[in-house]
Amino acid sequence: MTDSAARPSPAHAATPARGVHHRPMRPLEALAGEAAGSRTPLVRELNAAADYLRFLRQEVARLGADEIAKDRIPATIRELDCIIEGTERSSQSIMGAAEEVVAAAGAMDSVAYKAFVGEKMTAIFVACAFQDLARQRAQRIRSTMQTLERRLSRLATMVHTRTTPDLIDYAPIGADGFEPIGPAAPGEGNDQQRVDEIFDDLNDIAWK
């Protein structure tokens, strides 16, 4: 058998197999147009995500995180430390002067005692002057907290963020069974009646 006899004729090769249907060839331009159309929603989503990330970056920049972390918060901590130290120092001075006045009551005559009491009262008044400095420092702390609150609130509003209670990792005040010691806002803390009851209980315990 020769090679020419083994190879099918061109007419035979072009004849489709029985039962097989071939779709006509489509233009390349049409296929490219369909592919581009199918990508359009994805492209829109990616562009929207990029725009949102740019917007979020601008809002974070306006938040001034560097200023807050490097300047405002450290300054606030220093102010709090100064208030604590000043309060402790003044309290010790006032209590020390009062104890000296009580201890000297029977140790000197009335004239000397009067002069001594006047001297100690002056020392107490000087120690009480820390309140003005504490007030000024507290106002600066309050201003910093208000600035931080405004900026965080703006950022949360812009990015539509809500606090998730399950992610809060701190115990509320008073959760440990102990109430805060010190000045309280109106309606909070112990009122005078409760304070009197506490002292009555202490007196009962002391005299048993």
What features would you describe in this structure?
By secondary structure, the protein is mostly helical. It has helices at 3-6, 10-13, 28-63, 65-103, 110-128, 130-158, 192-206. 70% of the residues lie in helices and 0% in strands. α3 (28-63) packs antiparallel against α6 (130-158). The protein is elongated.
Major beta sheet, specifics?
none
Mean pLDDT over all positions: 71
Q: Which term fits the overall shape?
A: elongated
Helix fraction bin:
over 70%
What is the string of helix and strand elements?
Answer: HHHHHHH
User: Care to count the β-strands?
Assistant: 0
Low-confidence stretches: 1-6, 10-14
What structural class should be given to the helix and strand makeup?
mainly alpha
Estimate what percentage of residues fall within beta strands.
Answer: under 5%
Straight-line distance between termini? 131 Å
What's the SSE blueprint?
Layout: H1 3-6, H2 10-13, H3 28-63, H4 65-103, H5 110-128, H6 130-158, H7 192-206
Helix pairs in contact: 3-6, 4-5, 4-6
Coiled coil: 131-158
Region (Disordered): 1-24
Protein name: Chemotaxis protein CheZ
Supply the key terms.
208 residues, mainly alpha, 70% helix, disordered N terminus, coiled coil, Chemotaxis protein CheZ
